[in-house]
Write a structure and sequence with these properties.
Number of helices: 11
Structural class: alpha+beta
Number of strands: 42
CATH architecture of one domain: 3-Layer(aba) Sandwich
Strand order of the largest sheet: 32-31-33-37-39-41-38
CATH topology of one domain: Rossmann fold
Largest sheet: 7 strands, mixed
Radius of gyration: 30 Å
Helix content: 10-25%
Strand content: 35-45%
CATH class of one domain: Alpha Beta
Distance between the termini: 90 Å
């Protein structure tokens, strides 16, 4: 008998271990469901949107089929961070109310945008303001036209409101993009229509640009009857238009969500359909603050519909919630996916929620986000909310540290010290290898999904820049990533034994101006250091080392004093706090070369306008006239440099930077390689100074024969 009991215990233990093992593998530890809650409210309840209150609680907003009165009403639930319901409110008296959008108020509480229809009367636009306890402060209505569509709401800096959507002008048989300005009590102050006559134009969202203005996104068409293309307008707080952009090349691309990132750029997610109208891929459109197209990325996914919600993470990554009509062979019907800044999948999580329909997604803190919708119980619809925690970053960090310990890092050593000891290049190789291994170990992406993702398609991130040739035919340059610049200019030195200079800052300003006005450099992506210390220069390089991606392009410019030590055969940059008698705040050319090697840009160009700047090179180009195609130059990694002189002193008044900026400003070509740029102004420099400018490869930094391309903005 005891033997049978022991056998049973052993068998039970084995079964438990197997269950735990199965759960551990299936749980995908990179994403944790913290809690899941149902809220029993009324007959038919649905949540469509969520916002976070100032006290950390969450408002769930949607619709209810109230049993107390006829028609659909607006439902608001308030829950605490643990998911417990605090209260329930129903808005709307007589008539049928439909939810459209919600936005947070600067003075606590929130605004709800919807529609109201009473019997056979025309549908009205309905706006209401509630305090944080759900008390109705005011409500108002406007509109009432036959073909009006209201889509989004945003609070203005003067406590008024913007509403956006579309409206038909009688007789034109088309819709115009529509912007309404309300005062702080919901009364109409002004309204404006945008777009082209006889073409359907529509706004679908409005967001603050964080500078006192607002960005509206939607769609238009180039010609009547043609496919829709993205449409953006920037307005001030009164609704006056500042700029207007549409992008005819982005055919059948309809914006769905927009954000402003930390650099001030507009990041818009859009759905791209095929010619037959079926969903084809997701697009990420990046615009400058003035509406210029900076970049476009694509991700082709086998989805049945284009119903997606997005939240933005700190590093321009996003988490997307997708709720499909049905499962496909490759994709579940409900899933969460994290996408990096180039729209490449980081992880995907199947949400096994057969009876749940999820509609919204909001971020609560650095790792937690909440999704809400409704659940079908069979007899009625209930509200549903789930809190998730993204553990990917912390789990990846643990995995990498474990691997680094096997690669030679000691237990008492931190990662930065280990990197310094073994060198950046070797360390970066470890990180890339272990990150790939972690993706497999953590089962971040299903194999079936990766097979489809890696299949030949046009889903690779790219932006098409036209290239004019001698025969007037057009070619395409697949440009990936963004353009960044670090401009360092030093006029004033603290040590009285080091002569101050007059021109470096003004020279750097001229370069800054031409890069922003004529080329694909955004102000937000340019770091301009004026009279920086050594610490400030190194900190900026460290930041670029962490933020630059393998698809980006980096320009580093230095103007100031340089020094060449004939005995040690070493060159240096002198920061503003450099001392003539002490090299502690000098920056060695070898350190600059190390950073150029370790910053993972596709192309890096160093321009140095300083004494003895020529000491940076491994090799120098003797002749120009490169005949490689622009595409070939772009595909091959490059680490190039151009300097104002060799191992000699250069004058304070820089002929070098004068002709460099002039050549950039006068250039009319769509793209210009750094080598073409250099040899186009080198003769002018030689004719006006005794110094000999240099161009070549930065030694041992990873150059593969490509080149840095200056891409002109489309005017």
């Amino acid at each position: 008998m005891n033997t049978e009991k022991q056998l049973f215990r052993n068998l039970f233990t084995v079964i438990c271990l197997l269950v735990l093992l199965i759960i551990g593998v299936d749980a995908q530890t990179f994403l944790k469901t913290v809690w899941e809650k149902e809220y029993d409210t009324d007959l038919s309840d649905r949540i469509y949107s969520t916002i976070k209150a100032d006290d950390g609680s969450i408002f769930l907003i949607g619709e209810t089929g109230s049993s107390a009165s006829a028609g659909t009403k607006i439902l608001v639930l308030k829950i605490n961070p643990s998911g417990e319901q605090l209260w329930k409110k129903v808005f709307g008296s007589n008539g049928d109310f439909r939810f459209r959008a919600v936005c947070k108020s600067q003075n606590e509480g929130f605004y709800i945008l919807g529609t109201k229809q009473d019997g056979s009367a025309k549908k009205l636009i309905w706006i209401a303001k509630s305090d944080s306890n759900g008390a109705l402060l005011w409500e108002s209505t406007t509109g009432g036209g036959e073909k009006e569509n209201i889509a989004d709401i945003a609070e203005c800096s003067d406590n008024g409101l913007f509403l956006c959507g579309s409206k038909e002008i009688k007789g034109d048989h088309d819709t115009d993009a529509w912007l309404i300005k309300l005062n702080k009590r919901g009364a109409v102050e002004s309204q404006a229509l945008f777009g082209t006559r006889y073409i359907d134009d529509e706004f679908s969202s409005i967001i603050s640009d964080n500078k006192g203005g607002y960005i509206l996104s939607g769609f238009t068409s180039v010609k009547m009857g043609e496919a829709r293309v993205p449409y953006f307008i920037g307005v001030d707080y009164r609704g006056n238009k500042k700029w207007e952009k549409s992008f005819p090349d982005l055919v059948r691309t309809i914006p769905s969500s927009a954000f402003i990132n930390k650099s001030g750029s507009v990041v818009c997610f859009a759905n791209v359909s095929s010619a037959s109208g079926e969903f084809e891929k997701i697009s990420k459109i990046i615009l400058s603050s003035s509406g210029e197209l900076v970049n476009t990325f694509y991700l082709k996914m086998p989805l049945s519909i284009s119903k997606n919600s997005y939240i933005q993470l700190d590093d321009d990554q996003v988490i997307m919630l997708s709720a499909q009509q049905a499962k496909t062979e490759l994709m579940p019907d409900k899933f969460l996916i994290r996408l990096d800044n180039a729209l490449k999948p980081v992880w995907i999580k199947n949400l096994d929620l057969e009876t749940v329909s999820l509609e919204s997604l909001i971020r609560l803190d650095n790792t937690s986000f909440l999704s809400a919708g409704s659940v079908n119980t069979g007899s009625k619809m209930k509200c549903e909310a789930l809190l998730f925690q993204d553990l990917y970053d912390s789990e990846l960090d643990k995995f990498i540290i474990k691997k680094l310990l096997t690669a030679g890092m000691t237990s008492g050593e931190n990662r930065n010290d280990f990197r310094t000891r073994i060198g950046r290049s070797k360390y970066d190789g470890y990180i890339a290898q272990y990150t790939t291994e972690a993706a497999k170990d953590m089962a971040l992406l299903p194999e079936s999904f990766m097979r489809d993702l890696n299949a030949p398609s046009d889903s690779r991130p790219s932006i098409l820049i036209s290239e004019k040739k001698d025969n007037d035919s057009k070619d395409g340059l697949a440009l990936k990533g963004n353009y960044y610049a670090l401009l360092i200019a030093i006029n004033d030195y603290k040590d009285p034994n080091i002569n101050s200079l007059d021109k470096p800052i003004s020279d750097a300003q001229k370069l800054f101006d031409v890069l922003v006005s004529d080329y694909l450099f955004e102000k937000a992506n340019i770091t301009f250091l004026k009279n920086p210390t050594r610490e400030q220069i190194i900190s900026s390089l460290d930041r670029l080392e962490k933020s630059i991606t393998k698809n980006d392009n980096l320009l580093i410019f230095y103007a100031g004093h340089g020094y060449w030590n004939e005995v040690t055969q070493k060159g240096f940059w002198l920061a503003s706090d450099a001392s003539k008698e002490n090299t502690a705040n000098w920056i060695g050319n070898s350190s600059i070369s190390d950073y150029i090697r370790s910053i993972p840009a596709k192309h890096t160009l160093l321009i140095a306008d300083a004494c003895f700047s020529g000491s940076i090179f491994k090799t120098r180009a003797a002749f120009g006239g490169l005949d490689k195609s622009a595409q070939r130059l772009y595909e091959l990694t490059s680490r190039k440099a151009m300097t104002s002189g060799t191992l000699t002193e250069v004058p304070d008044k820089s002929v070098f930077i004068e002709f460099l900026v002039k050549r950039l400003a006068d250039n009319s070509e769509s793209y210009l390689s750094s080598e073409q740029l250099f040899f186009s102004f080198k003769p002018a420099v030689l004719n006006n100074t005794e110094n000999i400018p240099q161009f070549g490869v930065v030694g041992n930094a990873g150059d593969e024969g490509g080149d840095f391309l200056f891409i002109r903005r489309k005017k």
